[in-house]
Write a structure and sequence with these properties.
The protein is 35% helix and 19% strand. By secondary structure, it is an alpha/beta fold.
Length: 399
Amino acid sequence: MTDGVRRRQLLKGAGAAATLVTTGLAGCTGGSGDGGDGGTTTGSGDGGSDTYNIGFQVGGLGNSWFTALATAAEWYAEDNGMNINIGDGELNPTRQVTVARNLINSDIDALVVNPFDSEAMADPVEEAASQGIPTFSVDSVATSPELKQYTAFGNYSAGKRAGENAVRQLEEQNGAKEGKVIEVMIEQSAKLGVARHEGTVAAIDQYPDVEFADQIVTNNTREEASTKVFNSLQRNDADAFVCHAVTVGNGTLNALDRADMKVPKGEDGHKVISQIDAGPSTLEAINNGYVGVAIDQPVHFYGPITLHYIKKYLDAGEDDSVLPGVGETVGEDAFTLESETAQSETGQDIWSENVWAPADVEATEAVEDVPWFHTSSVRVTQENVDAPYLWGNWIKDVA
């Protein structure tokens, strides 16, 4: 038994842990719920040594993407014998660090982080490690070698594919690979934001007759994206947009509407939009011809995959050998994700098709000794916009 496991069991046995409040997250559109700065808690069991308490810091629940991330994790935990304490980071890097620290102090067996600022979240990860609490990261990485596993799709490749899809749409519309592109980015303090930007630049730089009309950095909210894109349209001519998230994609559509430039594909004046991630509004926009392509993440798998490996890791007495190692490929038959709660809430089996697979386990760039569980992604067009494996078809749109 490791010192970390022994410490946590002694705390539980002595009754030193705060009582967990059981609440439901499904349908939540923001706020921390009854858990205070820690967050909302759900799960089965009595919090004893046979039930794991997991702290889960989520980017911000005022956003449908993060709500899908949190809700899927909650449903999986509820039906798999884990208590999960969801901490709402409120789309604010400083708040996210505070939430992570509060979770660390709430007697948890493992921590999951989802940071906007990769460097800032390194300190809480180190603090958790010093207390014997293993930390896992989803979607975005914290720059600490103490992380046990990082689960996400390829942000650089997603940015590159989004840029290439924009050029392909320009060629289909205008007969040539030419035009002016506005890149609408998210926070560059997160490594995923930088990777998406670098991928998009690499794609656009391949085409001499395609150039950036503007490159906009936002705080990953629809409101700021709408304002900044609208202002950019007053100064710049643009033929296409590459949007790096659901929020900025929705903001771009709002800006085009405000500028009286929102025109569907096939009509004069159509502005090409290629996007990363596809929430409910994105799927509707794809269906109606306003957005051409979205490169979507299997976000509703990130939490369950991570919780699956956390349980294996803790069950094995914190033995790193039970986690996938660099160089391995994990196929769809490696494990099955099931939840009666998810089925009941959505009316469908949201994990019936393992769109995350296969996952190659790679070294995380610039973060030593952290294996990256590199999931696959989904290309969304009008042909598959109604597919049940798309999280945007069951989550409430709050982005």
